[in-house]
Design a protein that fits this description.
Blueprint: E1 3-12, H1 16-32, E2 37-42, H2 54-57, E3 64-73, H3 76-92, E4 111-115
Antiparallel strand pairs: 1-3, 1-4, 2-3
């Protein structure tokens, strides 16, 4: 059964192209490690909620845009094997090296998790 990693981040709006370049570099690694699909979605219609919302979840500032992303894997085993390889790749592959491909956002406010699909249409 498929497996999904989901991500929510706040990216400085001025860094949109830097984010796209960073994501293109890093996401090719996920594809090489077995991901079936990667989507990076730039916030376009992200409303403010009464109790909580995407912006508050990542403490987005006025000059930041919320990005919602996910990586689809064929199964959890493929995803787990890929994640185990990422630590090594951060040392050997410039696409995953934070010094060569720095995150154009505050990684401390990145929210992520792994999910098992329960409804697929």
């Amino acid at each position: 059964m498929a497996y999904v990693d989901g991500f929510l981040i706040a990216v400085p709006t001025a860094n949109r192209q830097k984010f796209i370049d960073h994501a293109n570099n890093a996401n090719t690694v996920f594809m090489e490690l077995g991901a079936t699909r990667v989507l990076e979605c730039w916030g376009d219609d992200v409303p403010t909620g009464e109790t909580t919302d995407f912006r508050r979840a990542v403490k987005a500032k006025d000059d930041e845009t919320v990005v919602f992303s996910w990586v689809e894997w064929p199964d959890k085993a493929t995803r787990d094997a890929a994640m185990a390889k990422l630590t090594e790749l951060m040392k050997t592959d410039d696409r995953m090296n934070p010094e060569k491909n720095p995150m154009p956002f505050d990684g401390k406010r990145l929210i992520y998790g792994g999910f098992q699909p329960v409804v697929v249409l």
